[in-house]
Amino acid sequence: MIITPLRKDVHPPWDLLLLADPSEDMVSAYLKGGYCYVAELDNSVVGIIVLFPKSKVIIEIKNIAVSEYLQGKGIGSKLIKHGIEAAKEKGFNTVEIGTGNSSISQLALYQKAGFRIIGIDHDFFVRHYPEPLYENGIQCRDMIRLSMQI
Q1: Distance separating alpha carbons of residues 119 and 107, to the nearest angstrom
Q2: Sequence-distant (≥ 6) Cβ neighbours of residue 96 within 8 angstroms
Q3: Cα four-point dihedral sign 130, 66, 111, 49
Q4: DSSP state, 70?
Q5: Cα(68)–Cα(95) distance, rounded to whole angstroms?
Q6: Rounded-to-integer distance, Cα 68 and Cα 46, Å
Q7: Per residue in 25-84, pLDDT tens?
Q8: N or C: which end of the chain has fewer CB within 10 A?
């Protein structure tokens, strides 16, 4: 597997981006100012990570997704490690990420990677998405915010 920046002449893999964030408007907004990297396996894009600068020292992982049939095989962990290294190279000292209260496996993945919970944005998904979101049989209401010093 190789991870490379998404080339400007290539359309982003919307199927993957929308796995992590169902709002095309929100994804489009952070793609414009973010750094996008894709994971390729056998010449197919199987994963994506989008980093978005929040300040001169803080960057946020706005989107990370792996093809459903390959989830649980370490690709997400490799994308996170790559994102952290890219953030360091660009001079950031903090990486943040947010996930839904219902995103149980993602919350575990981020904590295993070294992220620590720093807060909760109550009703984030209720305020920002027109339709209720459900995952693991739980309504996704709150954004769990995590951070890591690098």
Answers
A1: 13
A2: 54, 58, 59, 60, 61, 118, 145, 146, 147, 148
A3: negative
A4: G
A5: 25
A6: 9
A7: 999 999 999 999 999 999 999 999 999 999 999 999 999 999 999 999 999 999 999 999
A8: C
**Are 66 and 44 within 8 A, CB to CB?**
no
Query: Whose CA is closest to 49, among 91, 21, 9?
Result: 21
Task: From 36, 88, 28, 90, select the one nearest 61 (Cα to Cα).
Answer: 36
Long-range CB contact pairs, 77-83, < 8 A, 24+: 77/109, 77/112, 77/113, 78/1, 78/3, 78/39, 78/47, 79/3, 79/37, 79/39, 79/47, 79/48, 79/49, 80/49, 80/109, 80/110, 80/113, 81/113, 82/3, 82/37, 82/49, 83/37, 83/49, 83/51
Task: Quote the CA–CA distance of 9 and 90 in Å, as a whole number.
Answer: 22
Contact 98, 60 (CB under 8 A): yes
Q: What are 105-120's pLDDT values in tens digits?
A: 999 999 999 999 999 9
One-letter identity of residue 47: G
Rounded to two decimals, the pTM is 0.92
Q: Do 148 and 95 meet the contact criterion of CB atoms below 8 Å apart?
A: yes
